[in-house]
Amino acid sequence: MQEEEVQIGMRVRYPRTGTTGRVVALEKERGELYAELDNTNLFYRVDQLVPARDSGGKAIKSGDDLIEQIKKEREYLTGAGFQEAITHTDQSCEGGG
Q1: Across-strand partners of 32?
Q2: What is the distance between the alpha carbons of residues 55 and 52, in angstroms, rounded to a whole number?
Q3: How many other β-carbons are positioned within 10 Å of the β-carbon of residue 46?
């Protein structure tokens, strides 16, 4: 991506790790332009970034949706099915090998 293309608020992706986020700051250091991403708070060289497309998959959940999700998870964790499943494990976390 060229220096002229990147703007604050733009969604970008760092292809090497798949990190995606919005540019929150731009900083020039030793002749190179770096962009800070909102989700990692790390700086990435602008020439290593590509524009990110909205996935169109999962929508961002609202606060009410998140509260409902938490309530469902709490119900499941306190339910008889989950408690019975826990009693059938020794909780040792052995992976073998």
Answers
A1: 29
A2: 9
A3: 20
Structural tokens at position 36: 């800070």
26 and 43 in contact (C-beta within 8 Å)?
no
**Identity at 66, one-letter amino acid code:** L
* Angle, vertex CA 75, rays to CA 69 and CA 79, nearest 5: 150
Taking only the tens place, the pLDDT of each residue in 32-64 is 999 999 989 999 999 999 998 765 545 556 777
Q: Return the HEC string of the chain.
A: CCCCCCCCCCEEEECCCCEEEEEEEEEEECCEEEEEECCCCCEEEHHHCEECCCCCCCCCCCHHHHHHHHHHHHHHHHCHHHHHHHHCCCCCCCCCC
Q: Give the pLDDT of residue 56.
A: 55
C-beta separation of 82 from 39 below 8 A: no
All structural domains of the chain with their residue ranges: 11-51, 58-88
